[in-house]
Design the sequence.
């Protein structure tokens, strides 16, 4: 074949692939317009590579077989806590609770209690104490599990529990915990009787590219002891020093120790993930739910993911903002909101609600840090107060409204948590627990100087270009 004919055929094939990929990007369900536009620009402006990038990263699916297993595991499990009636939804925040209920078909449950734990080491101490007292089962699912002091202490506590006859199941994300999963410690856990599993195994990652997107992660932090105690928040199985990224340390986390019927929902999330990744059947453990505490409060666990109402996190946050009357305080390490959430934050501040956003001054992801700042001018102009936490990386994901409602869990306010990660969150209607979280937020504020509108207005042109370019690319990532 002549060179000219070969070039013509190659060009034709490329243009056909570009056209087909562009049509797919424009017609994929559930994608927001900004994401469609970003992908079309990538496909058309970067010959061949744009098509390859879309095929690798453009489809939000873990692969057909994995998706079916996860769906089947959820279908095999109940969604109603046995013997527990649904709580009346609180008047303030009713729409947010209703939206969160729709994700997993869980109901808001009454009779829950919670205690805010101390710093990272104190939170791990409390978790180990509950594991040491466990009689029946311990279940752990985390994104990051390290072989550092706290990670090893938790592994050893699980091994001791397994040796005395407690059923222990431990699952870690294949990417976030990749070092542990290849370690002697992980093998020792299995040898001691701990049932181990991997969420989204990254083995043969390149071979899996054709089957589904490989950077979909299980970012949940689930700790359930005896089906009656849950530890919920942002803490991984790791030290605050977080050695892989020590220059950003300490990692500042927040955890609640929760008892009551809502723990059943946290257990159900774990069971669905465990069974969906090939673990044994846990349905029998969901036949009973913890009793209601007489003075307990209403709460709801909801677990989101790319195949579980991917817009749920920004929807719930937006509805909480709409319910606010006096004050909203938010902390998150990764802030890359979609345009709708930016406008909701602005609207909340414009109508007179005090809105404070606490972010880390230094982010371990430069791209996220730049993209986050692109929204600052518009937020500051509307009256949102932005504070930058200085002592370390503020990893706590907290949201309080008027001292009455609070949201805590693993989800960040970024597109990855909205669309790609599997996350777990706890929505609470209680003044006491919210006050404790609000007090912790006040500690963050005390170490977080306010960002002045003048300083942002004086950003250099290159800095503004960098931030806006990162934000423009964020829908692709």
Sequence:
């Amino acid at each position: 074949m002549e060179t000219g004919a070969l070039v013509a055929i190659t060009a034709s094939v490329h243009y056909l692939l570009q056209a087909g990929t562009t049509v797919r990007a424009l017609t994929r369900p559930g994608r927001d317009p900004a994401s469609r536009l970003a992908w079309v620009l990538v496909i058309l402006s970067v010959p061949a590579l744009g098509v390859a990038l879309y095929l690798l990263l453009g489809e939000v699916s873990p692969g057909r077989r994995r998706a079916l297993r996860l769906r089947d595991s959820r279908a095999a499990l109940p969604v109603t806590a046995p013997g527990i009636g649904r709580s009346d939804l609180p008047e303030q925040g009713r729409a947010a609770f209703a939206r969160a209920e729709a994700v997993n078909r869980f109901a808001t449950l009454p009779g829950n209690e919670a205690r805010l734990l101390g710093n990272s080491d104190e939170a791990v101490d409390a978790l180990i104490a509950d594991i040491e007292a466990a009689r029946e089962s311990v279940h752990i699912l985390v994104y990051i599990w390290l072989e550092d002091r706290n990670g090893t202490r938790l592994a050893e506590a699980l091994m001791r529990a397994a040796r005395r006859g407690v059923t222990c199941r431990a699952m870690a994300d294949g990417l976030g915990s990749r070092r542990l999963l290849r370690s002697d410690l992980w093998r020792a856990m299995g040898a001691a009787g701990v049932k181990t599993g991997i969420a989204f195994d990254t083995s043969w990652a390149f071979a899996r590219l054709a089957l589904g997107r490989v950077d979909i992660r299980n970012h949940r932090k689930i700790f359930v002891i005896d089906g009656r105690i849950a530890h919920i928040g942002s803490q991984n199985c790791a030290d605050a020093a977080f050695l892989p990224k020590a220059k950003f340390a300490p990692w500042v986390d927040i955890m609640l120790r929760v008892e009551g019927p809502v723990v059943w929902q946290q257990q159900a999330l774990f069971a669905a993930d465990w069974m969906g990744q090939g673990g044994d059947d846990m349905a029998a453990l969901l036949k009973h739910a913890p009793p209601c505490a007489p003075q307990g409060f209403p709460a709801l666990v909801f677990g989101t993911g790319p195949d579980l109402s991917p817009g749920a996190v920004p929807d719930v946050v937006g509805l909480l903002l709409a319910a606010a009357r006096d004050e909203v305080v938010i902390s998150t390490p990764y802030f890359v909101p979609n345009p709708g959430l930016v406008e909701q934050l602005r609207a909340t501040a414009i109508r007179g609600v005090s809105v404070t956003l606490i972010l880390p001054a230094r982010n371990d992801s430069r791209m996220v840090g730049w993209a986050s700042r692109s929204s600052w001018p518009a937020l500051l102009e509307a009256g949102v107060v932005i504070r930058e936490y200085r002592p370390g990386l503020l990893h706590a994901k907290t949201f309080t409204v008027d001292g009455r409602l609070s949201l805590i869990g693993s989800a960040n306010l970024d597109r990855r948590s909205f669309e790609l990660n599997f996350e777990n969150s706890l929505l609470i209607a209680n003044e006491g627990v919210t006050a404790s979280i609000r007090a912790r937020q006040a500690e963050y504020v005390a170490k977080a100087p306010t960002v002045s509108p003048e300083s942002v207005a004086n950003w250099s042109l290159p800095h503004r270009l960098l931030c806006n370019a990162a934000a423009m690319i964020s829908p692709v990532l």
Notes: The radius of gyration is 23 Å. The chain has three domains: 3-57, 65-92+111-296, 312-473. Residues 108 and 300 are 5 Å apart (CA to CA).
